[in-house]
């Protein structure tokens, strides 16, 4: 019997809306989102968002955790797939159905992951782009790939994410490096060697976006950047859809669609092209 007919799962289907399906897919792809991030992407009213998330948790489709603040109180709820959410996604993508134990272990490992703040920072970048598209119909986030999917598709790079961003008739691809200040800048810049190698193999020549925690760190990073790989920087306080990107060697900030972008050549290991050499949307 296929996974979608497992006992109890079919009874949930009448309660799952199209927006719920989108949220389940987002959490399947990107592991964790906060209440605020989900609100900005999918809901108009925050209270409506909170109520719906609670209902989905009650159905076992979502799970959640949060941490205490050092000065008192709690951090926001962090939402991830619950057991029935994992079962639903497994059925939708024809994957083996997870056990309850496997689901619990996944949530526990995610909540205890020391890289969780970095993951949330990378997700926040794409959340802001998605929220921007709700206010600007001419803008579209055509592709939001996680670190895992980006590495699987491009093989040799270790970006924190990859996207295709369109405004009107202009589309630019990019690789994201979400910096949380935990690595020396020399090590951050050293990552550019792999992007250069990707381009030399016929892969895309997309700008590498360094999203940094402070203007001070941004200033110091620019002293180390060269022109071998197209790069631009901005800080976490900015809206990445606006004219906040400072290209290497430039003095004026520009929008994403003003950055140079090349999809590369139709070679075997370039996921931008299908087997016939046509550009994949």
The strand order across the widest sheet is: 4-5-6-7-8-9
Total strand segments:
9
Which range does the strand content fall in? 15-25%
Helix content: 25-40%
Number of helices: 10
Estimate the mean pLDDT confidence: 94
Can you give a write-up of this model?
- With 281 residues, the chain is an alpha+beta fold.
- The protein is built from ten helices and nine strands.
- The protein has helices at 18-30, 35-42, 46-58, 83-92, 100-112, 116-135, 147-154, 185-190, 192-200, 215-222, and strands at residues 33-34, 62-65, 78-81, 139-145, 161-167, 170-178, 208-212, 231-235, 246-247.
- The strands form two sheets. It has a six-stranded mixed beta sheet with strand order 4-5-6-7-8-9.
- The longest helix has 20 residues, at 116-135.
- The protein is globular.
- The protein starts with 17 loop residues before the first helix and ends in a 34-residue tail after the last strand.
- Mean pLDDT is 94; it is low at 1-6.
């Amino acid at each position: 019997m296929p996974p979608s007919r497992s006992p109890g799962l079919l009874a949930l289907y009448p309660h799952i809306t199209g927006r719920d399906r989108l949220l389940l897919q987002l959490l399947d792809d990107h592991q964790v989102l906060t209440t605020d991030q989900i609100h900005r992407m999918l809901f108009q009213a925050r209270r409506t968002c909170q109520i719906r998330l609670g209902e989905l948790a009650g159905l076992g489709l979502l799970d959640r955790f949060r941490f205490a603040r050092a000065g008192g109180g709690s951090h926001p709820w962090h939402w991830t797939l619950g057991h029935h959410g994992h079962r639903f996604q497994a059925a939708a993508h024809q994957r083996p159905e997870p056990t309850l134990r496997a689901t619990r272990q996944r949530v526990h490992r995610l909540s205890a992951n020391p890289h969780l703040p970095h993951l949330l920072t990378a997700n926040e970048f794409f959340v802001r782009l998605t929220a921007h598209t709700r206010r600007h119909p001419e803008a579209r986030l055509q592709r939001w790939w996680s670190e895992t999917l980006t590495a699987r598709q491009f093989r040799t790079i270790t970006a924190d994410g990859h996207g295709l961003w369109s405004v009107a008739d202009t589309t630019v691809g990019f690789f994201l490096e979400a910096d949380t200040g935990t690595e020396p800048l020399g090590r951050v810049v050293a990552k550019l060697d792999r992007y250069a190698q990707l381009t030399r193999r016929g892969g895309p020549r997309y700008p590498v976006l360094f999203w940094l925690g402070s203007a001070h760190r941004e200033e110091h990073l620019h002293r180390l950047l060269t022109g071998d790989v197209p790069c631009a920087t901005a800080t976490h306080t900015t809206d990445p859809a606006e004219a906040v990107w400072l290209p290497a060697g430039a003095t004026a900030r520009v929008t994403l669609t003003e950055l140079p972008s090349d999809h590369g050549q139709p070679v075997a290991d370039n996921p931008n092209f299908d087997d016939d050499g046509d550009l994949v949307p």
